[in-house]
Fold each of these.
Amino acid sequence: VIEEAPAPDISEEFRSSIGNSAIEAASAVGYVGAGTVEFIVDTLTGEFFFMEMNTRLQVEHPVTEFITGVDLVEWQLLIAQGFPLPKTQEELQIRGHAVEARIYAEVPERGFLPATGTLARWRPPAGSSLTGPMRVDSGVEEGDVVGSVYDPLLAKLKLQNRAGSQRVESHEKKTRWRGSDVLGCWIHSGVQIVWGPNRAVALRSLKTALLKFQIAGVPTNRAFLARLAADPKFGAGGKELTTAFLEDYPHVMDEPTVTPQLAALRVAVAAVTCHLEDSRGCTEGPTSSPWQSEKNFRPNSAGGGVVALRGGSSQDSHQVRVQQAAAGRFKVSIPAAEQWGEAQDIEIEAALEGDALRWRHAEVQTCSPFATYVQQSGALSGAHIVHLFDIAADFWFVREMQGQGEAAAAASSGAPGQIVAPMPGKLVQLSVSSQQEVSEGDVLCIVEAMKMEHKVLAPCSGQVQEILTAQGDQLEEGVLLMVIAPADSPAATEA
């Protein structure tokens, strides 16, 4: 989950001893080249034991590069060409601390099961005063499909801060920065690496970069990693910092408590996002005429309307009224709900920045005050989803368009009577059996994707002829789930 260098809470004597053991292991077999020797340490006795040696660099090698200022890939190539190592062991110095976090397409609260889907949004964080400029070496880009065939590791990001630093160029044109107040970050093949003058600063830098990373459409461990980096127990280090940390401190797996104020604010932000997206739809596209738009435009209106949203742990639907009070200011009227109590009016400032909404509220501060509006592609084409990036947890709402709502799920059927999976996900409920009579609109099954349950409805009345999947199956988008014989078909009549 987290890899770092130097290892916290070990002495120079211990580091020298384990390092010499690694050299002895490589020398014993006459190994020449870059390699990684792994040991396991008994935190009670201080003993360490050989596990294995990998005759290659591993994903975590950049943390060593960050604290030593060397390019291990370059050194590997030099050795292969017969050149000597550029430095001796005695010339190497450890400076600062580096922490690495692997960003996976997975669901931490379900045992870190791999996840699939389409990356509706993939935006690494912009540099800030804490993390500095950024470089991304990514294996994916926005719009890519994350399938189940390959490892779910996603991308690589590097952040640097030039303040008080000296630039150093390597043969591979990679950039290093040196300085007592420098911070850096690198995401490598799904790994985010940060550097700081000490471990505490490096962890804060990691948390900030993770919170600002906007990923939507595919569940990831991003929010979990941010919580782990901010956890006091993890930050304290010590003998508790073992491979059993998550078992010993399971609270890190829990998503942060959502206050009633934040729950209501999320709905308000989502509603304003929809409202501004509608307004943009009236003035963009092949024609700028609002008369050519199906959006809720009204002449001589101050700007407003009702937005229907479904989301949250309860999956409740909310009818939310948005009224533009002034330029960039909105009054949002939210109905009563169990999550926040009585009906209330919320005022927020918001504006579109490219394809995202930046919002501000007087009483709530967040590292990433953004929301984005995505029209779902694939079998659920037409479904509109608002993704929020507010705290150390991802959240989204499904917008229920007029004439769509639950009926949109019925569009997930293929040819007449063929019911297909609307998206990649898990079949969590099978509501019918073979030969059962169903009516149009009946719930046939429920597919779970992106932590939300999507009902698959019968597109017509008829009889279930065949069921081709079972509850608990992992589904690919478009796979045939079952076949229904329409009520007026010969197959249904014969049955």
Amino acid sequence: SDHSIRFWEAPTGRGYRTLQYTESQVNSLCITPNKKFLAVAGNPHVRLYEINSNNPNPVTSFDGHSSNVTSVGFQKDCKWMYTGSDGSVKDLGHSRAGLSARLSVQKRDQHRRSAPKSG
């Protein structure tokens, strides 16, 4: 209920990072098979965060559901991210070049913009 995502060191139980996720409840979490990104399913979107970063902001957002996203997962080579919601299943992360390439392109495009993207 505090809208936080916490990273913990499993062997020691020490928390080392917290992300604030205030825009909705967290319904599902999934780490990419390459262990680079954490997908967070909320209402009505999925946000992707870098795991080994101190950046508190998502690197990209997948908006395509009209209702609560209740599950998220990845195909083993990260070419597909699949999501499920109260009413549908989507393949929001499809990219022939793979998810990492898609994220790289999106990051480059975000850096080219002169004003930060809102909302």
Amino acid sequence: KFAGVVATTPMGAREAAKAPIIIGDPSYFGEAKSRRVGTVIRSICILDHPVARIGGIPSGQIILPQKQIGRHNDIYVTIVGQGHGVAQDGMYIAIVSTTAETADPAKEVQPGIDLLGPVLYRFDNIAPSLEPTDDGTKDGQYVFSSYD
């Protein structure tokens, strides 16, 4: 039996769901269904050259292990080129991310940024990391943890 579940979009619009359960990101459910457990930074960088540290190939991933860089969390660097349809020919997109440990998250991703070489444009996104406050079995609203 479906009693009706109401979801709020991140932009605030309310719509009645037509499903027995709702599964989603914490940003769709608000503070009653999730709690902040940290902060994540993602720096999106636009490059006009392949990244030398991965041998100049058009796409790849670098993980800077926490113990090697004196942190509690790894730094992740993802590079994608034109072959994935996300950048025009000769351009590359790099995303450098980590869980913030200080009040200056942009400084924390710098070891990953330094691996990229010259960066044409950099866009930093600092967002809360959220986790559900319950397992969803009582009301049919299943919230998963934020991605880091």
